[in-house]
Design a protein that fits this description.
With about 325 residues, the chain is of the alpha/beta class. Helix content is about 30%, strand content about 30%. It has helices at about 40-45, 130, 135-150, 165-175, 190-200, 210-220, 235-240, 265-270, 285-295, 315-320; strands spanning about 1-5, 15-20, 30-40, 60, 65-75, 85-90, 90-95, 95-100, 110-115, 120, 160, 180-185, 200-205, 225-230, 245-250, 275, 305-310, 330-334. The strands form 4 sheets. Strands 3, 5, 6, 9, 10, 17 and 18 form a 7-stranded mixed sheet that branches. The chain has a 6-stranded parallel sheet with strand order 13-12-11-14-15-16, sandwiched between helices. Strand 12, helix 5 and strand 13 (about 200-205) form a beta-alpha-beta unit. The model has no long low-confidence stretch (mean pLDDT about 95).
Length: about 325
C-alpha cells in the first residue's frame, strides 16, 4: 500500500513509500482510511520543531486525524464489526503514557492503518469522513481548551488570537458555549472575515496600535475573562496579556519552543491573572463532539479547505506551511 512516511535523522524528510498492509493483532482492527487531516503539527514534525518521544525506530507514517471503515478484525475482537464507520482517537494510553498516532506509532496517511479497538469512535452515517477525520485535534483541542483548561462560562468576554485550523473552530465552539463578546484577532483580513462568519462579534487586526483600547471598549471596560493563543507566537502572548481583565486567564494552545515572558509582571500579579498551558484533549472530548455533531449542534463542512489525494501529501504540507489559500483543514483522501 502507499503511505506518506517521515524519515528521521540528519536528513529528515517526508516520502511516499510502498509498504506492506499491516495485519491486526488480538486487540486491533485494520482500518481502510477514507480521510486524514493535515495538521500544523505534521509540518513541525517534518521541519524538526517537534520530535517523537516514544517512536520505536526512525521512520513513521504520519497522520493523527483519521477516519474510515473497519476492514479486518484482529483475532478475538468482538467490539467492532467489518464496515463500521469510525474516526480514530489521536492516541492511546500505554503503561500510563500517551502515545500519539502518526507520531509515536504509524498513523493514517496511508491506504490502511491499524487501530486499537478502544480508540474507535463510531460516527453517524450523515457525517462525511472528510469532516469527521479532524474532530480529534483540530476540533477537540480547542474544545478541551475552552471547556476544561479555560473553563469558559456563558457571557464571559473572550479573545481568540489566530483564526487558523484551531482558532476557527475555537470561535465556533465559544459561540456554542455562549461566550460574549467573542473578539478574534488575526493579521490576515481573510482570517478576520472568516472569524465573523464563524460567530465572532468583532474581528481586529493584531497590528492595530489601538487594539487594547478596542478590546476594553468592546467589553465595557472589563477586559477579557479568557484569551486563547492558538498561534503559538511570543508577540501574541504579550498582546493578549495586556487585554486581560482582573482574574483573566491566558490559555496557551499553539505550540512553540520560544520562551514565555510577561513584561508587566507586577500588573499580572496585582490583578490575579493566570497563565494556563494546554495540550491536546482527552477521548471524552472527542466523543462529546461526535454527540454534538450527531444532534447537529455543530457543523464542520466549512472547515474542509481542500481534499487532495494521498500522493499529494507533500503538496498539502507545503500549502499549509505557506498558508496558501488560508486553509482551515486540508484533507488527504487515499
Amino acid at each position: 500500500m502507499l503511505a506518506a512516511r517521515l524519515h528521521l535523522g540528519p536528513e529528515r524528510h517526508l516520502s511516499l513509500d510502498e509498504v506492506p498492509v499491516p495485519e491486526p493483532g488480538p486487540d486491533q482492527v485494520l482500518i481502510e482510511v477514507a480521510a486524514a487531516g493535515v495538521c500544523l503539527s505534521d509540518v513541525h514534525l517534518i521541519d524538526g520543531t517537534l520530535t517523537p518521544l516514544f517512536l520505536d525506530g526512525d521512520v513513521v507514517t504520519l497522520g493523527h486525524e483519521v477516519a474510515g471503515t473497519v476492514h479486518t478484525l484482529g483475532p478475538g475482537v468482538t467490539a467492532a464489526k467489518v464496515g463500521d464507520r469510525v474516526l480514530l482517537q489521536a492516541g492511546e494510553q500505554r503503561n500510563g503514557a500517551v502515545f500519539t498516532r502518526g507520531v509515536d506509532y504509524d498513523g493514517g496517511w496511508a491506504e490502511y492503518t491499524l487501530a486499537r479497538v478502544d480508540t474507535l469512535v463510531p460516527i453517524p452515517d450523515d457525517l462525511p469522513f472528510e469532516q469527521a477525520c479532524f474532530i480529534p485535534d483540530a476540533v477537540s483541542t480547542p474544545w478541551a481548551a475552552i471547556t476544561a483548561t479555560a473553563q469558559v462560562r456563558p457571557a464571559e468576554p473572550v479573545g481568540v488570537w489566530g483564526v487558523g485550523g484551531l482558532g476557527a473552530h475555537g470561535v465556533q465552539l465559544l459561540r456554542l458555549m455562549g461566550a460574549a463578546p467573542i473578539i478574534a484577532i488575526d493579521p490576515l483580513s481573510a482570517a478576520r472575515e472568516r472569524a465573523l462568519e464563524f460567530g465572532a462579534d468583532l474581528a481586529l487586526d493584531s497590528a492595530d496600535p489601538d487594539l487594547r483600547s478596542q478590546v476594553f471598549a468592546a467589553t465595557s471596560g472589563t477586559g477579557l475573562a479568557a484569551a486563547f493563543d492558538f498561534a503559538g507566537v511570543a508577540a501574541v502572548r504579550e498582546q493578549a496579556i495586556i487585554c486581560l481583565g482582573p482574574g483573566g486567564r491566558l490559555v496557551l494552545v499553539g505550540l512553540t519552543d520560544k520562551p514565555i515572558t510577561i513584561t508587566g509582571g507586577t500588573a499580572f500579579s496585582f490583578f490575579g491573572q493566570q497563565l494556563r498551558g494546554h495540550y491536546g484533549s482527552t477521548p471524552e472530548h472527542v466523543t462529546e463532539l461526535v454527540k454534538l455533531q450527531r444532534l447537529h449542534r455543530v457543523d464542520f463542512a466549512r472547515s474542509v479547505s481542500a481534499v487532495l489525494p494521498l500522493a499529494d501529501a507533500p503538496k498539502a504540507v507545503a500549502e499549509l506551511e505557506s498558508k496558501q489559500g488560508n486553509p482551515i483543514r486540508i484533507v488527504l483522501n487515499p
